[in-house]
Amino acid sequence: MERGRNLSKLLAASNHKMHMDLNLIIKEHALHFLPAKSLFKFRGVCRDWKLMISTPFFAHNQSLSFSSVSGMFFQSPGDSPTFVSLAPESCGVPDPALKFLPVPVHIVSSSNGLLCCQDQTADRDYYICNPVTMQWKKLPKPSMEHGSKPAAVLIFKPSRLNFVAEYKLICAFRSIDFDDAIEFEIYSSKEDSWKVSGEIHFGVVKLIPKSGVSVNDAVYWQSSNGSILAFDTTKDRSQVIHGCYSGNSNATLGEFNGKLCSASCSRRMLTVSVISNIYSNTMQMNSMAKLWDDKIRIPLSNEVLEASSYDPSVLYAGSETVLVFSGLNIYLCDIKTKETRFLVKAPRAGQKVVPYVNSLVAL
């Protein structure tokens, strides 16, 4: 009898130790991989979790660990933005219309949890914010005129060694000194100032607002003639890359395995093309060098094709995920498995979208 009691005590102690070990494993090795909305819910688990999730150190680790696209901000000209979550139970923002900002804004760009917005009034001031924490910063006035629809790209790369969020805003604008020329102005949060690049690119037609993406240390914009303007932020140099995939003007730029990619839907097929040689368009004539490689081809299902009378469009392309827009439906295409599934309905068609990562990054 006594032996049975001792065995029960031993099992109880062992279970308690297992529970403590599991609790420690979740705290130390799992929580920071979750999106912000889930973490806000988990603050109610216990006082210990609440205190830990509320620390700047945890927010920093989460911004390093969680980088999945969590949803899309939709916005029509003159309207307030709306947010469509790809996983409503775990990803979201408390104020999708961004009313916590002091003025109505247009969302211009996003990067790893931060949004760049522009004042809708004549002031056209830029704001950087995190819609999860509702922290924001007004940027100083740029020295050049960027217009009401700036070709601006926000670059924020979380750093393990830097607890302060350091980011850059790269704006391509029409030169006032030279016809048919594009210049670049760059804001650095580290310096808290703007600097006009010495680089001037001639012969580029109008850039498409919100088409810009950053890959590594370069920024790429689509132009109205189907070419791509590239600007290397480290070398302070620009060049034109000709030919999005098949010259498709509806192609969307993104990132695939650390390289620039172009994704488009045509002839019942989603195609993701990756740039193979950025310098091939400067080689001698009749060179056999290929500019784009067709890496992925995914047949679109009847469900996707029948949702609209037009070819589906690509909202986002990055890593192993492509988001396709057909009718008012958003579908997720998994590049690895080549499977497509319905995600959510969008507010309405014809809106510009900005992808968003549900991060706790602090400003």
UniProtKB/TrEMBL annotation:
Pfam families: F-box, FBA_1. InterPro entries: F-box-assoc_dom_typ1, F-box-assoc_interact_dom, F-box-like_dom_sf, F-box_dom, SCF_F-box_component. Residues 102-361 form the F-box associated beta-propeller type domain. Residues 22-56 form the F-box domain. This is F-box domain-containing protein. It comes from Deinandra increscens subsp. villosa. The lineage of its organism: Eukaryota, Viridiplantae, Streptophyta, Embryophyta, Tracheophyta.
